[in-house]
């Protein structure tokens, strides 16, 4: 499994900080704002990753893909059963014949979600990582962020 371009702890903190900033004060799912929220999260995570992996004015040795999926809860969090919020963190790296799978089954008023991806890449240098920013009892939605990195050098 490939190590990410920055430590997993840094990657988690970066993602948590960006989501906390973008969704600060947001409690309700608003479809009209989802494009703006996703764009802000994606662009900020990308910008920070590029900045953190650029050394001595040389371009980052990685190409990045960042995805953001907003999952609306079926009912307001306060009406959900206790204990239904879960954190999902998955680390992935795949070889030519492997698939990356990240998913969760959560009941108690949340919509189910299953996500899968596959890749043909260098399993020693390339990889992906997923993180769930949990809405918990504060928001009517959860957010799943995926970061994919591909080394630009052989």
3D structure, described in words:
Helix 1 packs antiparallel against helix 2 (34-53). The two termini are 16 Å apart. The protein is globular, with a radius of gyration of 16 Å. The relative contact order is 0.24. Strands 1-6-5-2 form a 4-stranded antiparallel β-sheet, with helices on one face. The chain has a two-stranded antiparallel ribbon with strand order 3-4. By secondary structure, it is an alpha+beta fold. It is built from 2 helices and 6 strands, in the order H-H-E-E-E-E-E-E.
| Gyration radius from CA atoms, angstroms | 16 Å
Range of strand content: 25-35%
Strand order of the largest sheet: 1-6-5-2
Tell the overall outline.
globular
Order of helices and strands: HHEEEEEE
Q: Which stretches are poorly predicted, pLDDT < 50 over at least 5 residues? A: 80-107
Mean pLDDT rating: 80
Number of helices: 2
**Classification by helices and strands:** alpha+beta
Q: Write down how many β-strands occur, each being a DSSP E stretch of 2 or more residues.
A: 6
> What's the main sheet like?
4 strands, antiparallel
Helical content, roughly? Answer: 10-25%
Q: Termini distance?
A: 16 Å
Give a topology summary.
Layout: H1 8-22, H2 34-53, E1 62-72, E2 89-92, E3 99-104, E4 113-118, E5 127-133, E6 141-151
Antiparallel strand pairs: 1-6, 2-5, 3-4, 5-6
Helix pairs in contact: 1-2
């Amino acid at each position: 499994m490939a190590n990410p371009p920055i430590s997993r702890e840094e990657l988690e903190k970066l993602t948590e900080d960006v989501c906390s900033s973008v969704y600060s004060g947001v409690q309700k799912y608003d479809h009209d704002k989802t494009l703006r929220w996703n764009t802000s999260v994606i662009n900020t995570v990308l910008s920070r990753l590029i900045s953190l992996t650029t050394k001595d004015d040389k371009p980052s040795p990685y190409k990045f893909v960042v995805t953001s999926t907003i999952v609306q809860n079926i009912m307001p969090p306060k009406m959900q059963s206790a204990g239904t919020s879960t954190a999902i963190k998955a680390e992935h790296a795949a070889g030519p014949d492997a698939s990356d799978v990240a998913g969760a089954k959560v009941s108690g008023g949340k919509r189910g979600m299953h996500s899968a991806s596959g890749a043909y890449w260098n399993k020693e240098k390339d990889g992906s990582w997923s993180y769930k920013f949990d809405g918990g009892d504060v928001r009517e939605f959860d957010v799943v962020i995926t970061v994919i990195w591909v080394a630009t050098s052989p």
